[in-house]
Amino acid sequence: GTVWTSELISSIVHEGDLVTLKARRMLDRVPWLECIPDDPLFRKSDSLNTGKKNLWFTHLSLERLPTDIREGKCKLVYVARNPKDQAVSNFHFHKLNDSLGQQADLTWSEFFSLNCSGNIYFGSWFDHVLSFWKFTRNNPNTKFIFFEDMKKDLISQVKEIEEFVGVPLTDEQRSRVVQHCSFSSMRENKMVNGTTAFDEKIGKFMRKGEIGDWKNHFTVAQNEAFDELFETKMEGSGIKFTF
């Protein structure tokens, strides 16, 4: 969801300019906030942030964000995905990511236990989502969106984000953005341009993303255990997810 949302917002601030969007890798247009400045995976700063707004994306927890962000001095869009599908996505991410040791032999059962405990890279899904949910309730410079809403009605989400970031689009520009960021385009690996091994892995990873794919991985016992955990952790939060 983070990569998809990054490409979506980048497409909006580039006003649907497909030539520019396809000429630069998404990781150049929307670099990682937490990446080391001289990381060889990324271009030099003179090629970054070419649109009407400067963009960064991150998986950092709220307390690790720069102070200016937490003080509302820039706009923040947080995308959440239902935790069952997110767990499956994170499982595949761990299996292909070199920086996490590329745990190719990691089994779903092993990962499920780690994921539920929160003893995993980026920590507990519940802590991460709930902290940002509470943060966005009281900060006008923040927007909390759902992966499932993007899948259901992308054009409505584009319109909302246009207004939020202050880059209104024409109908033609909006149409180009929606087409460029549709899952059919994503499956053709058009959202991440480049030829590095990292690009290829991200492209492969992004071809996943169906709502309800968790049913192909969770056992009945795992699903019951997770439902119980979810009810305990999310009680009183008011967040509603589509599973």
UniProtKB/TrEMBL annotation:
Keyword Zinc-finger: no
Keyword Transferase (UniProt): yes
Gene3D superfamilies, per database record: P-loop containing nucleotide triphosphate hydrolases
Residue stretches making up the Sulfotransferase domain: 1-238
Molecular-function GO terms, alphabetical: sulfotransferase activity
Source taxon at top rank: Eukaryota
Keyword entries, A-Z: Transferase
Sequence similarity: Belongs to the sulfotransferase 1 family.
Protein name, per record: Sulfotransferase domain-containing protein
Taxonomic classification: Eukaryota, Metazoa, Ecdysozoa, Nematoda, Chromadorea
